[in-house]
Amino acid sequence: MFLSARPAHAGVAHRKNLGLLRRIMCQESTKFKNVWTTHSASPIAYERGRIYMDNYQCCITSIAQQPRLIYQKSKCAKSEKIEDALLLECPLGEMLPSPSDYKASLIVLTVQNWLLRLSADSGEVLEKVYLAGSCCKFFRYLSWDTPQEVMIVKSAQNKLPAAARQAGIQQTVLFYLAVFQVLPLSFIGMLEINKKIFGNSVTDVAVSNGILIVMYSMGLVRLYNFKAILEQFMEQPFDLGQEFNWNGQVGVVGKFPFGLPCNIKITDTPPLLFEASSLENAFQIGGYPWHYIITPNKKKHKGVFHICSLKDNALAKNGIQDMKCCSLEPDWIYFHPDMSGRIIHVGPNLIKVLKLKEVKNHADQMEIAEDFTIVANRENCVNNNVTVTASGRVVKKRFTLLDDDPEQETFKIVDYEDELDLLSTVAVTQIGADGRAHLDFHCNEHGILLKSIPLKESWDVTYSHEVYFDKDLVLHIEQKPNRRFSCYVYQMVCDTARDDDP
Q1: Could you tell me the residue ranges of all domains in the chain?
Q2: Sorting pLDDT into bands at 50, 70 and 90, what band is 386?
Q3: pLDDT digits (tens, 9 = 90+) for 204-231
Q4: The pLDDT of residue 380
């Protein structure tokens, strides 16, 4: 009884601490101060309080008054270059085989088909798995099926050399998917996505939450039960490090030069769970009861979103969402990550948070209603097509400002901080070469503005930007032309002393 109660008490204390942190952060006297800036010729990545630079060879902690170096490894060869990474965190309440498994680690993918598990604290290689020989290339595609439980490594699309194509040789295998259980790292199986099974027009595949998502060139999206596929078509299970004799090959699973056996052979088309046609294969599932969002598969419908019931494909009442904005960048829509079943629709100057609710007197029908809206600050923006000069001459404009004109405040990023239950937005105004951005925190339940943080650095809307908010930390990563990267770190400070005090 006593042991089972401890995690609950720890959880209550943790929630109270986060509630206290949220109140402190939203106080008027609390500021966010730029404490550290760095520049790099290689990409900069951020994961849970750690800043990675120089192709993950350098790790810097941001959980301090000022970021400090955790480790710096020697420069790696081009053949060892890391293309993608996922952070692994220790599962609660499980016995693990190695003490290193209880600490955070990185799973990384190299250009030479190696999957490595690195210590997040030292960069030391804890495990090495060789994925495959020259038959396919695994790089750039690491993703979660089930977060922190099942991981997918996807190959690049297989393409025959030009000479083979000219000789009339047909390429039937498009992708390979390697499936792993993590912590402890174990091999579940590898399968191929074949034209003979799924059709000639397959363009891409993905796996998420136990669903195999297959995308086609004509905008069609098909869903299959991925777990059922693994169970039905598994020919023989293998463990990492196990010696094998497979299809005439003798080797060790996960070791060079053999890699992993393709031990899941799909011999027949799996049962179809669902299919839909959507512009650019855009398709999302969420809400309660389950709904999906698509754009009708015609270019004229770009920016129009249909919200339909997954049960019977019925369009929800008010389920056609169209902001009718005239902008260079399209608006975007997605299910709220807070698991509330709500929907976030973001346009240049407007953020709508929508909710699903039952139609009155029709319990089996759902409608879309606005929960709240957040509007960009454009009070000083005047956009008249006709103006009158001081002399009284009438001047007509030959053009109309776009809704995302850089001289008007425009939403660029919307995110959700789950631990503090805050909805964060980045809004930008750029006049000439000088762009100014501010990060705002809104109450996730009602949309009320709680805090606004001006970012000190200039923000150019033509560059690529990422902004992370992690409890008391704000981190901005910017990619400029010619692969120049910058990172700006802000820390929360209670502004009770002079600004120049440490």
Answers
A1: 1-45+406-502, 283-399
A2: low
A3: 999 999 999 999 999 999 999 999 999 9
A4: 52
Alpha helices in 377-464 (DSSP H): none
CA distance linking residue 486 with residue 480, whole number of Å: 8
Of residues 181, 168, 173, 144, the one with CA closest to residue 156:
173
Tell the residue number behind the tokens 């939403």, with chain if given. 411
**Gyration radius of the chain over CA positions:** 26
C-alpha to C-alpha distance for 413 and 148, rounded to whole angstroms: 26
> Do 84 and 72 form a contact (C-beta atoms < 8 A)?
no
Residue 317 CA to residue 310 CA, distance in Å, equals: 14
Query: DSSP character for 169?
Result: -
Query: For residue 308, how many other CB atoms are within 10 A of its CB?
Result: 17
Given a contact cutoff of 8 angstroms between Cβ atoms, the answer to whether 235 and 265 are in contact is yes
Opening angle at CA 359, ends 354 and 360, nearest 5: 130
Counting beta carbons within 10 angstroms of the beta carbon of residue 489, is it exposed (0 to 12), middle (13 to 18) or buried (19 or more)? buried
- pLDDT, tens only, 158-208: 876 666 666 667 778 999 999 999 988 999 999 999 999 999 999 999 999
Residue with tokens 């009442």: 317
Count how many residues are written for the chain: 502
What secondary structure, in 3-state letters, does 310-343 show? CCCCCEEEEEEEECCCCCCCCCEEEECCCCCCCE
Q: Find the angle CA(271)-CA(200)-CA(230) to the nearest 5 degrees.
A: 35
Q: What does the DSSP 8-state code read for residue 174? A: E
pLDDT over 80 at 115, yes or no: yes
pLDDT of residue 327: 79
Q: Mean pLDDT over all residues of the chain? A: 87
